[in-house]
Amino acid sequence: QVQLVESGGGLVQTGGSLRLSCVVSGRVFSFIPMAWYRQAPGKQRELVAVATRGGSTNYTDSVKGRFTISRDIAKNTVYLQMNSLKPEDTGVYYCNTASSSLTWGQGTQVTVFS
Fold first, then answer.
1. In whole angstroms, what is the distance from residue 8 CA to residue 77 CA?
2. pLDDT band for position 82 (50/70/90)?
3. What mean pLDDT is reported for the chain?
4. CA–CA separation, 43 and 14 (whole Å)
5. What is the dihedral of CA 24, 28, 31, 37, to 10 degrees?
6. Residue pair 28/2 in contact by the 8 Å Cβ criterion
7. What is the pLDDT of residues 3-56, one digit of tens each?
8. Of 24, 49, 45, residue with least CA distance to 102
9. How far is CA 87 from CA 4, 16, 62, 84, in A?
């Protein structure tokens, strides 16, 4: 069974940076687009960024120019570099496939304070 283990969240001031990591067990990682999602308090989970195996990326408008998704195929890891963080970026961040086809991991909490 494929497992997703997210890490790297924390408490950061507005304008700060964090780098999230997600280790994906299993070979599925090598073949399909991976994504980061987030769920803010009281809101539905939303798609934040997608990275294809070929290297192309897509972002939700609110994070464009601030977040960068990348993947290391050899390490079965997908990253989310988050810069210029804002309080509205607060939430639990999860990784999954771009179609959210895997069982969700525990996520990693990101809290941005002003």
1. 13
2. very high
3. 94
4. 21
5. -50
6. yes
7. 999 999 999 999 999 999 999 987 666 778 999 999 999 999 999 999 987 889
8. 24
9. 26, 11, 12, 10
